[in-house]
Specification:
Shape: flat
Strand content: over 45%
Structural class: alpha+beta
Distance between the termini: 203 Å
Number of helices: 3
CATH topology of the largest domain: Immunoglobulin-like
CATH architecture of the largest domain: Sandwich
Length: 448
């Protein structure tokens, strides 16, 4: 019986010390883990690597040296150092350090630590360490070759026939159609499905030459433009000559953007009905004209004189201006010399001051389309804005007149009064002289 108790006691002690030894071993172990932010990195890109020292108990001190292949990785970050020495505070159980590397060449590599040592804070015993490297796969950049194909595989119109027959390398075509056709559809198909097309679809036609462009943009940005000239036959053209240029009156509507607050109407020109646009505020009648290149512009039509003047409207914010090209009967402010300025590809008559630094400012004459009032406007070429011009010289003259009006009237009244007094006194003196002369002519006996 005593032998059995002795065996049980010895067995219990063995198990107790085994457990205690296991706990002590676990307490005296640590881990240094090296982890990369990316496992696959393109050559030339950066990757972050974090080294973490940890233990289940507070760590007292640690050190390690960062190990990596300098032919594949270049350390970008200057901190922390590649050789680390750290100390604990009795609480800290982990410590982390992050490094940034730039990848240099393709291939597999790793970042790890060497000469690592970690001490327990309480016992200052050396911990048994387990380490794991960070494996990184560096790959070459994928070069994607984009297509430069900007050709069309098909180009058609729903009215008329292309001349010449379509060929992807032929970039200009002509089409002739009857005047009854006022619209058609341009259909275009790219040879490369990755190319984009701009300019196809339904288009509105007017009498004479109509030019449309179909722009093809390849995947790599290369462009190709196909031009279609559509000639709409006109049985009764109204031809107009303005200066050296020749125009044709457009009789149909919906071929140009109508200015705001203008309404479409029909007016007679040369006994033919023509679409025009009128505005009750501006009292202007606009008619679209087409030049020999097919460009359509609006002109102010005077039915009485049968004249056409270009209509140029510009907007800045809520201000809309009709700029008068050749204003007549206006007084140009002093110190302003005639010049010209181009706004939105339109060359306009202007004036510029010779005083101060005014080279970016121009004076133009126009009508506020919202009010119908004409005035000078100051144009800022840099900011591209208009502002109503106030003639400060004229204003100062008016202020001077108003300031000195009453004093001048008083002075004039005083002068007038003095003149009247002088005249009256002169008359009195003249009468006295006459009386004195008569008295001298009477003899003394006659007086008796």
């Amino acid at each position: 019986m005593k032998e059995i108790k002795k065996l049980i006691f010895l067995g219990t002690c063995f198990i107790f010390f085994s457990i205690l030894n296991t706990i002590n071993i676990n307490a005296l172990s640590g881990v240094i883990n090296t982890r990369a932010s990316l496992t696959n990195v393109v050559v030339g890109n950066n990757v972050n690597v974090t080294v973490t020292v940890s233990s289940s108990a507070p760590i007292g001190a640690w050190e390690f040296v960062l190990n990596y292949d300098s032919s594949k990785l270049r350390l970008v970050s200057s901190t922390p150092a590649t050789y680390i020495v750290g100390y604990g505070d009795g609480v800290k159980k982990t410590a982390s350090y992050t490094y940034t590397f730039k990848t240099l060449t393709a291939g597999s590599t790793s970042v790890s630590v060497k000469n690592a040592l970690v001490l327990d804070f309480n016992t200052e015993a050396k911990l048994a360490l387990s380490t794991s490297p960070a494996n990184i796969n560096i790959v070459k950049p994928t070069i994607t070759v984009k297509s430069s194909n900007a050709y069309l595989s098909e180009l058609t119109v729903t009215a008329g026939t292309l001349d010449p027959i379509f060929n992807k390398k032929t970039t200009e075509y002509n089409v002739s159609i009857d005047e009854l056709i006022d619209k058609l559809t341009i259909k275009a198909t790219p040879e490369d499905s990755k190319a984009s097309i701009l300019g196809d679809g339904e288009v509105v036609l007017s009498e004479g030459k109509n030019t449309f462009e179909v722009k093809v943009t390849a995947e790599d940005g290369k462009t190709q433009i196909y031009t279609i000239n559509i000639d709409v036959f006109d049985n009764n053209p109204i031809n107009v000559t303005i200066g050296p240029k020749k125009y044709t009156v457009i009789k149909k509507g919906s071929v140009i953007d109508i200015p705001e607050n203008y309404r479409e109407t029909i007016i007679p020109i040369h006994a033919l009905d023509v679409v025009a646009y009128t505005n009750e505020i501006t009292k202007l009648c606009l008619v679209p004209l087409k030049d020999e290149q097919g460009k359509i512009s609006l002109f102010i039509y005077n039915a009485n004189k049968e004249t056409y003047i270009p209509y140029h409207e510009f907007s800045t914010g809520i201000l809309r201006l009709y700029i008068v090209e050749n204003p007549k009967g206006i007084t140009i402010p002093r110190n302003y010399r005639p010049t010209s300025i181009t706004i939105n590809d339109v060359k306009l008559k202007a004036w510029q001051s010779g005083e101060g630094n005014a080279r970016d400012f121009y004076l133009i004459y126009g009508m506020n389309v919202n009010t119908g009032q004409y005035n000078f406007y100051r144009y800022d070429k840099v900011e591209e804005t208009f502002q109503r011009f106030i003639n400060k010289q004229q204003k100062s003259y008016q202020d001077i007149i108003q300031e000195y009006f009453i004093p001048v009237i008083i002075i004039l009244f005083v002068l007038f009064s003095l003149i009247v007094i002088i005249i009256i006194q002169g008359i009195k003196i003249k009468k006295l002289r006459r009386s004195s002369i008569k008295a001298k002519k009477i003899p003394p006996m006659a007086q008796l």
